[in-house]
Amino acid sequence: MRKSREPENGQDYEALTHQVEALMKAGRGRVAADEIIRRLRRCPEDYDNRTVRILAHTLLQSRTARLTAAEPMTDQQRECAILAPFLTECSKCRTSWHSLSAMAPELGMTGIHVANPRGLQCQQCRYSLCSDCLGSTGQGGEDIDQPRTVSGSCPHCRSPLTTPVLATGRRHVTRIEPDDVEAVIVVRDGLIPPTLEQAFPVVSKFLPLIEDDLGLIHIRRRAVGDMDGSRSSDRLAMSLVHDLEREGALYPGAWERSKRLEVMAGAARGGDYLLTVVRKSDRQKRPDWLADQVREHVQVMTRQAPASGQGKCWKSLTRADSLLASARVVDEALAAAFDSGELVTRHCAVDRLVVAATAMRIPDLRYAREQFPEGYVEYFTGLVNRLLRIEDGKITDNFVHWIVSTDDSTVKVDATVYPSWANRETRFFAVDMMSAQELRAAGL
Question: Is the pLDDT at 108 greater than 80, yes or no?
Answer without folding.
Answer: no
